[in-house]
Design goal:
One of its GO terms (molecular function) is DNA-binding transcription factor activity. This is Lactose phosphotransferase system repressor. It comes from Christensenella hongkongensis. Keywords: DNA-binding, Repressor, Transcription, Transcription regulation. InterPro entries: Carb_Metab_HTH_regulators (IPR050313), DeoR-like_C (IPR014036), DeoR_HTH (IPR001034), NagB/RpiA_transferase-like (IPR037171), Tscrpt_reg_HTH_DeoR_CS (IPR018356), WH-like_DNA-bd_sf (IPR036388), WH_DNA-bd_sf (IPR036390). This protein has 252 residues and is of the alpha/beta class. It has two domains: 56 residues, Arc Repressor Mutant, subunit A, CATH 1.10.10.10; 183 residues, 3-Layer(aba) Sandwich (Rossmann fold), CATH 3.40.50. It has ten helices and 14 strands. Strands 6-5-4-9-11-13-14 form a seven-stranded parallel beta sheet, with helices on both faces. Strands 1-3-2 form a three-stranded antiparallel beta sheet. Strand 7 and strand 8 form a beta hairpin. Helix 2 packs across helix 3. 40% of the residues are buried.
Length: 252
């Protein structure tokens, strides 16, 4: 059975974000449609800023290419450390905490080592490695590991999160410029963030000020759904003024 046009285009967009490129002939064969249909899909994705047409197919738009975890972690380290310190103040001893796989969230994990009797659930290989030799009780969620971000994703991850009730969740973002909420590059990681939001009493987004001038493809929630944004003092005052209408802003 052939898939609906929008469903097919959404799947092609996911393939682009995961693999960086797609082949028009392979897509036509996979979906049982003509080369002309796939060409129209490519035009649609290009017009929406997701793809750029290439020889025999398309490549992901440069601005949407997902940087590796290492590339993210070496940027704005001083700001991330300050944000992490401020975020850690929100965690009381004895808390159950959800941590996703962002580089700023990794900085929070290092701060949580100083807390007493806390339990951490995470889908981040890096976070688990930081906490494994500490006094923190840490649970690494099961699922498929994404090599780009070192995040664990998929149906197993989501099922585990559905059974957890946490006091607070800390979520990273790739950017939110001009959007109604924080965004991420990957559909599967967006699903995990949304599941963490449902499983936590408080949801805190952590992001350095550069994310206010960056965008990403997938919005995983609205600012009204977030209890606070922790960021650094270099963020544009106009952005703060707008966001304060929707959520609490905590400056590091």
């Amino acid at each position: 059975m052939k898939k609906l046009t929008q469903e097919r285009r959404n799947e092609i967009a996911q393939k682009l974000l995961l693999d960086g490129k797609v082949s028009a002939s392979a897509l036509a064969e996979e979906y049982g449609v003509s080369a002309e249909t796939i060409r129209k899909d490519m035009i649609y994705l290009e017009e929406n800023g997701i793809a750029k047409k290439g020889y025999g197919g398309a490549v992901v738009a440069t601005e949407l290419m997902e940087p590796s975890f290492l590339e993210k972690s070496v940027k704005h380290q001083d700001k991330k450390a300050a944000i992490a310190g401020k975020a850690a103040e929100l965690v009381a001893d004895g808390s159950t905490v959800l941590l996703d796989n962002g580089s700023t969230v990794l900085a929070i994990a290092k701060q949580l080592i100083l807390k007493k009797d806390i339990t951490v659930f995470t889908n981040s290989i890096k976070v688990a490695q930081v906490l494994i030799d500490s006094g923190v009780k840490v649970y690494l969620l099961g699922g498929e590991m994404r090599h780009t971000s070192n995040a664990v994703v998929g149906s197993w991850t989501l099922r585990a999160l559905a059974e957890i009730r946490a006091d607070i969740a800390f979520l990273g973002t790739s950017g939110f410029m001009g959007r109604k909420g924080p965004c991420i590059e990957n559909f599967q990681e967006s699903d995990v963030k949304q599941a963490m939001m449902k499983s936590a009493n408080r949801v805190i987004v952590v992001a350095d000020s550069s994310k206010a001038s960056s965008d990403s493809m997938i919005q995983f929630g609205t600012w009204e759904e977030m209890d606070a944004l922790v960021t650094d003092s270099d963020i544009d005052p106009a952005v703060i003024k707008e966001l304060e209408k929707k959520t609490e802003i905590i400056l590091a």
